[in-house]
Design brief:
Oligomer: single chain
Helix content: over 70%
Strand content: under 5%
Structural class: mainly alpha
Order of helices and strands: HHHEHHEHHH
Radius of gyration: 18 Å
Largest sheet: 2 strands, parallel
Length: 208
């Protein structure tokens, strides 16, 4: 039960701010006579949930991590040389798999980002953003993760293009703008950054 509360708190800290922003975006567009479809709302929320999952599994840093660790950067926390350390096939595979949904979801819901270079750039930038945030909580930032994550986004895009070619584009959402994609990445992060106090909640639940 305690673990469920902990994960629920983490999820709510990131998802609720995005849902509020999504409702504001939808309301403004309805006033202009071009409100989003229900499918657009649903898939924008699905995209945000995916992003929240990535932040959870990668351990993106927060302001509370800065308070705890004082931005103390050690040399062994940062690797800028590709494949310098022991190659962990399982870790590499998981890093690729984690970003495959990014390469599938983004072109599925946003027509303007349905290009290889957009997905490659987004995968690279998003992975770099996560790696930088991990420096806030003493987690290692590795260029190998950056490479594998970006490859995962590209693999996802290839899968999407095969799927799109086989069934056509009629089932795609298409009408979610780039601004909502960016909001789905940054607003959950900001919610996590300012609202998710991991150690504080752990002390409350587990008494340490």
């Amino acid at each position: 039960m305690d673990q469920l509360i902990f994960y629920g708190y983490e999820f709510a800290a990131e998802f609720i701010p995005f849902i509020i922003a999504l409702a504001v975006w939808g309301g403004r567009n309805r006033k202009k006579g071009r409100g989003p479809t229900k499918a657009a709302y649903i898939f924008a929320a699905v995209f945000a949930v995916y992003i929240i999952g990535v932040y959870h599994f990668t351990g993106a840093g927060t302001i509370y991590d800065i308070m705890n660790y004082k931005l103390a950067l050690r040399r062994d926390e940062l690797n800028l040389i590709p494949f310098l350390n022991h190659i962990d096939v399982t870790a590499y595979f998981l890093n690729v798999v984690m970003f495959i949904p990014l390469g599938i979801l983004v072109p599925f819901i946003c027509e303007r980002m349905n290009t290889f270079f957009c997905i490659f750039g987004l995968g690279l930038a998003f992975s770099l953003f996560i790696e930088a945030s991990q420096l806030l909580n003493n987690r290692a930032s590795d260029i190998d993760d950056l490479i594998m994550n970006t490859c995962g986004a590209v693999v996802g895009f290839i899968i999407f293009k095969i799927f799109d070619k086989c069934i056509g584009s009629k089932l795609r959402i298409k009408d979610i703008p780039v601004s909502v994609i960016m909001a789905g990445i940054f607003i959950p992060f900001m919610g996590r950054f300012f609202l998710f106090n991991e150690m504080g909640m752990a002390k409350m639940l587990y008494g340490f």
